[in-house]
Design a protein that fits this description.
Blueprint: E1 7-9, H1 19-25, E2 34-36, H2 46-50, H3 54-65, H4 71-81, E3 94-97, E4 100-104, H5 114-118, H6 121-131, E5 137-143, H7 147-156, E6 162-169, H8 175-182, E7 189-195, H9 198-209, H10 212-220, E8 223-227, H11 233-252, E9 262-267, H12 272-282, E10 287-294, H13 299-306, E11 308-310, H14 331-338, H15 343-356, E12 358-360, H16 363-367, E13 372-376, H17 379-393, H18 399-415, E14 421-425, H19 433-440, H20 449-460, H21 466-472, E15 480-483, H22 487-494
Parallel strand pairs: 4-14, 5-6, 5-8, 6-7, 7-15, 9-10, 9-14, 10-13
Antiparallel strand pairs: 1-2, 3-4, 11-12
Helix pairs in contact: 1-6, 3-4, 3-11, 4-6, 11-12, 17-18, 17-19
The structure holds pyridoxal-5'-phosphate.
Pyridoxal-5'-phosphate binds at residues 112-114, 147, 230, 267-273, 322-323, 400, 426-427.
Length: 495
């Protein structure tokens, strides 16, 4: 029997909840995020894990954190998630290029790493509802910087007992990202472009979540909210699995010795993906450095440098839009942890963040961040990295992965550290075709979007993914826009 893991809020609400309750709620009542009371240790050796396929590894990780799910429930969720929605049985392949290992997390139905968690979240959510005898319809409210939205829509479309509403920044996503979302089928789906940026969308959603009156009104009509954003531990836990799987793969292929430490580089926005790597490390996975890569919105780089988190700055639209974020929600889980699991300290900082847009951590807390390294890549550096890797080995990176790759280059140059390194490859280049092709050669700028897709397929020698083929001719079915202040009304009207 595994140790029972309960969850509690990062902001002081002392009530412990089970994993399934935490998944259903998404966010704690006090506005905090749910964190496991303690982080369990992997109970299978790396040798054993290296003999397992993705689904088995996922089970070994998730069983330790989602302890109120039965073995059968968890295995059923895993089976339903990691099936032929993925275009490879390996689920998360490792590709060696230029001395690093790119962990391709984009083989799911919407070709970004969000599929890794969002293909299983709906199953975890309905199972959680059943376990807790919930009869209300679950309404998933999601703010997206582009990739979460489509992945959540794909996951929840036509899932009985659920509805999903997605808000995205009208002018802050790539054309292909937008087309993917507005063509989404399913009677239970709603997609809304807001006149604002991702942080506005995320703040708006958080406000709707904490609106007690609205909650009461909807409850009386048989609805309750939950979240598909990475603040939900049902997103975070499945993301831990692929770091363990990547390590196991390297071991199986003889690229590392058992116990040898690796570095992990993560292109970061909301801090969910890298936090999963941090949890993996705490579960005993031999990770040395956690390298946090940012684009020009380099709040996190500044934070790791100075210990001051300051969102008071210009919001920059970049070619890696899924990282255009100034409030990295999941950082709160790390702050809580480096404060020695002190919810009071964390709550004060989060209060300062919402009142003044900034906070500073203590010297002691900063010392606890020694395993992290932060840096960023400018737009020019990102484009140059795409071109460099393509020209040296024919491998085409997407813009987000290129940010990580460029930051890894800076890290290696600065530190001379030659530890084997896994770079999280978070999206297919087909999702950001124009930026990727422009980086390779300016001449492509004249071509229209889908012609570019075919050209990318040719020069990169990869088949056009199903996700892109699907939207070539799909009709637009969502054409709703609103101001940030109208988000609540839009939600009410849909329900
Ligand atoms: C969401 C996303 C990121 C950022 O991940 P976080 O977990 O929010 O830090 C990076 N790259 C791509 C392609 C994404 O979709």
């Amino acid at each position: 029997m595994n140790k029972q893991i309960m969850y509690k809020s990062t902001r002081g609400n002392e009530r412990l909840v089970t994993a399934s309750e935490a998944i259903l709620k998404g966010l704690s009542e006090d506005g905090g995020l749910f964190v496991p009371e303690s982080i369990p240790t992997l109970d299978k050796s790396m040798q054993e894990l290296s003999q397992m396929d993705y689904k088995k590894v996922a089970y070994e990780v998730m069983k330790l954190l989602l302890t109120d799910f039965t073995e059968e429930e968890l295995k059923t969720c895993i089976e339903r998630a990691y099936d032929d929605k993925f275009d490879t049985e390996v689920i998360a392949p490792l590709v060696e290029a230029e001395g690093a290992y790119y962990l391709e997390l984009f083989h799911g139905s919407t070709i970004a790493f969000k599929d890794m968690a969002l293909s299983i979240l709906p199953h975890l959510m309905i199972t959680s509802a059943k376990k807790n005898h919930i009869e209300n319809e679950i309404v998933i409210l999601t703010a997206t910087s582009g990739d979460t939205g489509k992945a959540a829509l794909a996951g929840f479309a036509d899932v009985e007992g659920t509805r999903i509403i997605v808000f995205y920044p009208k002018n802050g996503v790539s054309p292909i990202q937008e087309k993917q979302m507005v063509t989404q089928k399913g009677d239970n789906t709603l997609v809304v472009g807001i006149y604002g940026n991702f942080d506005d969308a995320q703040t708006g959603v958080k406000q709707i979540f904490s609106d007690k009156e609205l909650e009461k009104e909807l409850l009386s009509r048989g609805f309750q909210f939950s979240s598909a954003n990475s603040i939900n531990i049902g997103r975070l836990v499945p993301q831990i699995c692929y770091y363990v799987y990547a390590y196991a793969t390297l071991l199986k292929e003889g690229k590392i010795a058992d116990g040898e430490k690796i570095n992990v580089v993560v292109p970061t926005g909301n801090f969910g993906n890298i936090l999963a790597a941090f949890y993996a490390k705490n579960m005993g996975l031999p990770i040395a450095k956690l390298i946090c890569a940012s684009n020009d919105n380099k709040v996190l780089y500044d934070f790791f440098e100075t210990g001051v988190y300051d969102r008071n700055r210009e919001f920059i639209l970049t070619t890696s839009p899924s990282m255009d974020i100034l409030i990295s929600s999941n950082l709160e889980r790390l702050i809580y942890r480096i404060a020695g699991n002190d919810a009071g300290v964390n709550a004060d900082m989060m209060k300062a963040l919402s009142a003044e847009g900034k906070y500073e951590i203590s010297a002691e807390m900063k010392n606890a961040l020694a395993d992290f390294y932060g840096n960023y890549a400018t737009e020019e550096e990102t484009a140059a990295e795409i071109k460099r890797i393509y020209e040296s080995c024919g491998y085409v990176l997407d813009t987000h992965t290129a940010v990580a790759s460029a930051v890894y280059g800076k890290y290696a140059k600065q530190t001379k550290d030659d530890t084997k390194t896994v770079i999280a490859s978070t999206a297919s280049p087909f999702k950001f075709t124009r930026s990727v092709m422009n980086a390779i050669d300016g001449k492509y700028d004249a071509m229209e979007d889908f012609a570019l897709v075919d050209e990318l397929s040719k020069i990169g020698n990869v088949k056009v993914p199903r996700a892109i083929e699907e939207i070539r001719t799909a009709p637009v079915v969502h054409d709703v826009q609103c101001e940030v202040c109208e988000m609540k009304e839009v939600v009410k009207n849909f329900l």
